[in-house]
């Protein structure tokens, strides 16, 4: 074990561990990527690296009927973005109130939101299905946005209130003394400082909405509101005896891209230690 | 520029706790007022009520004759410097200082001019484009001051602005705060728990204890004429020595010996007939090594021989710590609170007394020495009420 004590040995050990974790996590993703790039003939050739790179599956899913993939992709993006926006805005206000204010029923509010987060979603599907059909929300965007927001809000409130508690309250008092209205103090001082928390929360909520399969498959029936995870289940091969492995892989790769873009875009905003220097501590 | 009047201002929290009780202070235009007291005495609460950050339960706050109780902080036109500075970390120094002006919708040219002026005064010009995180403690403190002075408010409120600085910087900043206040001539209300800051900065000092005003006056007046045991023990460093004693027939008997009452005190205690218990207070600086005194001066005071436990030489003078057999001990809530605040109860040596002798003294630890004390400077307090027997 002596080698692990030396700095160089330690570094090597950590590098090995890191590589292991990365390979472990990314191997399935790479496999899907590899599958999606193989031509139909070589799909089952059992080699990890495609022998000849072909984009035929990508062409297939984009050139096929719009309702197969493109329309669900638009649904996914639209529904997830709107649900994220609503959840983050509502969550920010709720979290701020929970972190800063004393009001009757505060504990109840926190408890109920935790309860919602813990509630098994599958048990709500039947009642939700009936309710949405009665209300005319079934198979519409709002019909999905509503449950997404409901189940994402507890997550948003919890993450955000932790961030708000980190912000020194004196900054708000200082803003008030400097002549700010409560609204100005929130917008110009508190919100910019809470931004890293807001972006973190936005990423988490977006991923939750984007990946959801349960609500998407149960509360939609046509391409009207069906999102990609649900749409993938309706992929068929060229004939009914063929598994659409290539197309599924290509679609899986495509729907991973927005998540990566979203995370990369907001990651730069998540600057740790933004509040350092505000107060002596 | 404004005069601030607190008229029986009271703060009672919803749980019934009384934080500030009927505090009345009249602050003249341009005056530098210090609120001082141990932690929990209500000084910060008082300041927050003036700022508008806390509601006033009863009483009235007037700025320039106008009732302010219901006004939001932004409508009171007063600036505040916080103990933690509370700088906006996402803004540069320039933006921090410009923030109050931006909110007041001042035009850009004026903002620039005012920020530059303030930066000039506070020696911050070189740091205007840096973020607070990259500044030292003293620089952050100056930015906090800068943010207060840019908009020329009616008054400054300062909540222990120097307590986060190290000792040396604190002394420097104390001088600059004082200079700045004189230069700007802005009414200032300054909260501190440090009696040295209170003594050196203020035009007048307000001593608070448990939400009640103990005494208001100039630092020198408080030092010479403390209204009660609490003020006497709080003001002055090292703190005043207290002995149990009795007065009878024009003289006072205490562990210091029996000395005739000075004329100043004679009239004050005449009312009581016969013997009466008192607490005798004398400041360390009113002792002196008797061997260093000429005979004429020795006549004017009392003499006592004590054994020196510890001698601390400060260079300019020497602190001799001694104990005397005082018979009964003093039982006073006020002194107990002071002792608790200074941590003296933890050390278990609350019977020690201190004399401040000139550096030439030949006193040594463990040896006896004859001390002279100035009987003119004795303070007598009523043991039950804690009040000074001389009406002030």
TrEMBL record, chain A:
<dbReference type="GO" id="GO:0005886">
    <property type="term" value="C:plasma membrane"/>
</dbReference>
<feature type="transmembrane region" description="Helical">
    <location>
        <begin position="248"/>
        <end position="266"/>
    </location>
</feature>
<keyword id="KW-0813">Transport</keyword>
<feature type="transmembrane region" description="Helical">
    <location>
        <begin position="73"/>
        <end position="96"/>
    </location>
</feature>
<keyword id="KW-1003">Cell membrane</keyword>
<feature type="transmembrane region" description="Helical">
    <location>
        <begin position="108"/>
        <end position="129"/>
    </location>
</feature>
<feature type="transmembrane region" description="Helical">
    <location>
        <begin position="12"/>
        <end position="33"/>
    </location>
</feature>
<feature type="domain" description="ABC transmembrane type-1">
    <location>
        <begin position="73"/>
        <end position="266"/>
    </location>
</feature>
<dbReference type="InterPro" id="IPR000515">
    <property type="entry name" value="MetI-like"/>
</dbReference>
<feature type="transmembrane region" description="Helical">
    <location>
        <begin position="141"/>
        <end position="164"/>
    </location>
</feature>
<keyword id="KW-1133">Transmembrane helix</keyword>
<dbReference type="InterPro" id="IPR035906">
    <property type="entry name" value="MetI-like_sf"/>
</dbReference>
<dbReference type="InterPro" id="IPR050901">
    <property type="entry name" value="BP-dep_ABC_trans_perm"/>
</dbReference>
<feature type="transmembrane region" description="Helical">
    <location>
        <begin position="185"/>
        <end position="208"/>
    </location>
</feature>
<dbReference type="GO" id="GO:0055085">
    <property type="term" value="P:transmembrane transport"/>
</dbReference>
<comment type="similarity">
    <text>Belongs to the binding-protein-dependent transport system permease family.</text>
</comment>
<protein>
    <submittedName>
        <fullName>Carbohydrate ABC transporter permease</fullName>
    </submittedName>
</protein>
<keyword id="KW-0472">Membrane</keyword>
<dbReference type="Pfam" id="PF00528">
    <property type="entry name" value="BPD_transp_1"/>
</dbReference>
<keyword id="KW-0812">Transmembrane</keyword>
UniProtKB/TrEMBL annotation, chain B:
<keyword id="KW-0547">Nucleotide-binding</keyword>
<keyword id="KW-1278">Translocase</keyword>
<protein>
    <submittedName>
        <fullName>Sn-glycerol-3-phosphate ABC transporter ATP-binding protein UgpC</fullName>
    </submittedName>
</protein>
<dbReference type="GO" id="GO:0043190">
    <property type="term" value="C:ATP-binding cassette (ABC) transporter complex"/>
</dbReference>
<dbReference type="InterPro" id="IPR047641">
    <property type="entry name" value="ABC_transpr_MalK/UgpC-like"/>
</dbReference>
<dbReference type="InterPro" id="IPR017871">
    <property type="entry name" value="ABC_transporter-like_CS"/>
</dbReference>
<dbReference type="GO" id="GO:0005524">
    <property type="term" value="F:ATP binding"/>
</dbReference>
<dbReference type="InterPro" id="IPR012340">
    <property type="entry name" value="NA-bd_OB-fold"/>
</dbReference>
<keyword id="KW-0472">Membrane</keyword>
<dbReference type="InterPro" id="IPR040582">
    <property type="entry name" value="OB_MalK-like"/>
</dbReference>
<dbReference type="InterPro" id="IPR015855">
    <property type="entry name" value="ABC_transpr_MalK-like"/>
</dbReference>
<dbReference type="Pfam" id="PF00005">
    <property type="entry name" value="ABC_tran"/>
</dbReference>
<dbReference type="InterPro" id="IPR027417">
    <property type="entry name" value="P-loop_NTPase"/>
</dbReference>
<dbReference type="InterPro" id="IPR008995">
    <property type="entry name" value="Mo/tungstate-bd_C_term_dom"/>
</dbReference>
<dbReference type="InterPro" id="IPR003593">
    <property type="entry name" value="AAA+_ATPase"/>
</dbReference>
<dbReference type="InterPro" id="IPR003439">
    <property type="entry name" value="ABC_transporter-like_ATP-bd"/>
</dbReference>
<dbReference type="GO" id="GO:0140359">
    <property type="term" value="F:ABC-type transporter activity"/>
</dbReference>
<keyword id="KW-1003">Cell membrane</keyword>
<keyword id="KW-0813">Transport</keyword>
<feature type="domain" description="ABC transporter">
    <location>
        <begin position="4"/>
        <end position="235"/>
    </location>
</feature>
<dbReference type="Pfam" id="PF17912">
    <property type="entry name" value="OB_MalK"/>
</dbReference>
<keyword id="KW-0067">ATP-binding</keyword>
